[in-house]
Amino acid sequence: MSSGRLFFLDPHGGRVLSSTPEGGDLKVLLDGKKATPDGITIDAARGHIYWTNMGRDWKANTGSIERADLDGGHPTVIVAPGGTFTPKQIVLDEKREWLYWCEREGMRVMRAHLDGSHIETLVRTGEGEGDRKDQRNWCVGIAVDAARGQIYWTQKGPPKGGQGRIFRANIQVPKGQSAERRTDIESLFEGLPEPIDLEIDRANRLLYWTDRGAPPHGNTVNRAPLDDRGGPRAAPEILLDGLREAIGLALDFAGRRMFVTDLSGSLYTATLDGADKRTVLEGQGHLTGIAFV
Question: Span 6-292: which CATH code?
Answer without folding.
Answer: 2.120.10.30
